[in-house]
Design goal:
Layout (H helix, E strand, L loop, with lengths): L2 H15 L8 H8 L3 H13 L3 E4 L2 E5 L12 H14 L12 H7 L4 H13 L3 E4 L2 E4 L18 E6 L2 H7 L5 H13 L3 E6 L6 E4 L4 E3 L5 E2 H12 L3 E6 L9 H9 L5 E5 L9 H4 L4 E5 L2 H13 L5 E7 L6 H16 L3 E7 L23 H16 L5 H15 L14 E4 L2 H14 L8 E5 L11 E4 L2 H13 L11 E3 L3 E3 L11
Parallel strand pairs: 5-6, 5-10, 6-9, 10-11, 11-12, 12-18, 13-14, 13-15, 15-16, 16-17
Antiparallel strand pairs: 1-2, 3-4, 7-8, 17-19
Length: about 525
């Protein structure tokens, strides 16, 4: 088959599998298929001759109705169906959700009842919605339940590949908690089971028995040989693998996803920090490969725009030196600086040593602490309060608060630039954990947030959701939902031609940002 024919066939297959996907431009075909411009043009002309696309001079080709598809964007029903379909693809409308009544769409979308009815029929014929009593619900019509109890041994199974047992445990204690919980819950909700397997073979003892020490390998398949046996044992029940490993352990990811792809089941790789943008279907050589990632630039842009739109012209970024050499913070720091320049926001950056918060001295003390389980600044402030109460039992409350403020300034000098009269009007924290500590320090030295200083952070930890800190959420639970339904296979999940699925971050406003007029 000529090269142009092969490229045209690939594009046609992709368009049929992804109804919402636009036709690639000549430049995109040249870049992604690594062919000459003439070959890309020839491929598009083949698709045009088949009535699949319409070519326009010097503009992106337009997608036409593909034979077998039951809708047309040229009708009001087709356009309305496309809007609902996009919401299903993006996870705004989720599998099992009940759609609003017809009257809701008539009033909000300004369409007729017949248009809504026709659009719902189109979506139903595509298996995207089904009748649930008098209402429509997202997803295909569920199969009738089998009589009797369906044992776990009969259900489809998705493997979750982690680095080792310790990382699997950490997933439920860090900001990935909501993501992994959503993924597991969504699988079970639709009759699937998950099975944890691990890359590492050597593991430290985890359970002590009378006669021997058991390792995590006794409970989890470890290494390719064990995982292969597991997949072979599952047989047709095996639905694919969700790869969730630490961002420090990505060196061999291409080999692993290629190896897992040989079983002709979906392989979904969670690249939270977008560390491997070149790992795609082309480099892996598997069409059932998906890479889910957080768009870090979009994440930072939301935070910077929230400040710039409120009139801020100067901001400070404090970098915890515990993370200062880690790739995620280096990348985030560079993006903050770049986007602040674009927004004409003067940025001041300095590092601090957060270990001092535990004992009140910089930086000699070297005590380890539980990252998520302890808020160091709370403990530090409480210890100072107790010392002041013991040393000045008859002091007034105002006097004690003044002594506390002075002691915090003395014991935490790396944050004292925030006390200067010409300080920045906004503070950007590297993550939400650091922001909560800053908030407590600022409150106790007499700087009110957001009246005196605005504060914005990243990563929406559930653990800190009670604290009034505005933060940008990566929306990892949306990725988890989409990943789960790739394996369930009940609704279409939108990915680009390379298999990439990006999150859409969201600003969670908890009241720690104010306009400059209030400052």
């Amino acid at each position: 088959m000529p090269l142009a024919e092969r490229i045209a066939a690939t594009i046609e297959e992709t368009l049929r599998a992804n109804p919402g996907l636009p036709v690639p431009s000549v430049r995109e075909i040249v870049r992604e298929s690594e062919v000459a411009k003439n070959t890309a043009v020839a491929a598009l002309r083949i698709l045009s001759s088949r009535g699949l696309v319409k070519l326009r001079n010097r503009r992106r080709p337009v997608r036409l109705d593909i034979p077998g598809e039951s809708f047309s964007d040229h009708t009001s029903a087709g356009r309305f169906a496309r809007n609902v379909r996009d919401k299903i693809d993006d996870g705004i409308l989720r599998a099992g959700d009940t759609l609003p009544k017809q009257l809701h769409y008539i009033l909000t979308d300004h369409v007729s009842g017949s248009t809504v009815s026709r659009a719902m029929s189109i979506l139903s014929s595509e298996g995207l919605i089904h009748r649930q009593g008098k209402r429509w619900a997202v997803g295909p019509q569920p199969a009738a339940p089998a009589p009797g109890y369906k044992a776990r041994e009969e259900k489809p199974v998705v493997l979750i590949l982690v680095q080792g047992y310790d990382f699997w445990r950490d997933l439920f204690t860090m900001h990935s908690n909501l993501m992994i919980s959503t993924f597991c819950t969504e699988l079970k909700r639709f009759g699937h089971e998950y099975l944890v397997v691990q890359k590492e073979i050597a593991q430290a003892p985890t359970v002590v028995h009378a006669d021997r020490r058991a390792t995590s390998r006794d409970f989890f398949a470890a290494g390719r040989a064990d995982i292969l046996k597991t997949i072979q044992k599952l047989g047709d029940r095996y639905r694919g693998t969700f790869v969730v490993v630490h961002q420090k352990d990505l060196d061999d990811m291409r080999d692993w996803v290629s190896w897992l792809g040989q079983f002709d089941r979906p392989v979904v790789f969670l690249d939270i920090e977008n560390r491997l943008p070149h790992l795609d279907r082309r480099t892996v050589g598997r069409r059932a490969f998906f890479r889910c990632y957080s768009e870090e630039r979009a994440l930072v842009r939301l935070a910077v725009s929230a400040l710039a739109d409120r009139g801020h012209r100067s901001a400070a970024l404090i970098v915890p030196n515990r993370f200062a050499r880690e790739d995620w913070l280096i990348n985030r720091r560079e993006l903050i600086a770049d986007l602040c320049r674009q927004a004409r926001l003067d940025l001041t950056v300095w590092e601090h040593n957060e270990r001092l918060w535990l004992i009140g001295r910089e930086p000699e003390y070297n005590l380890l602490y539980d990252y998520m389980g302890i808020n160091p600044m709370f403990n530090h402030v409480d210890s100072i309060r107790e010392s002041i109460r013991a040393a000045h039992p008859k002091a007034t409350r105002a006097r004690r608060e003044k002594l506390l403020s002075q002691e915090l300034a003395r014991t935490v000098p790396s944050l004292t630039p925030l006390l200067k009269p010409n300080r920045a009007t906004a503070l950007i924290a590297a993550n939400q954990w650091a922001a909560v500590n800053y908030l407590y320090w600022l409150k106790n030295v007499g700087i009110a947030v957001p009246k005196d200083l605005s504060l914005v952070a990243f990563d929406n930890y559930l653990y800190f959701s009670r604290e009034p800190v505005t933060t940008v959420d990566q929306k990892l639970e949306d990725i988890a939902y989409k990943a789960a339904h790739i394996f369930v296979g009940d609704i279409p999940i939108r990915a680009d031609r390379r298999g990439n699925i990006a999150t859409v971050p969201e600003l969670i406003d908890r009241g720690s940002i104010a306009g400059v007029a209030r400052l």
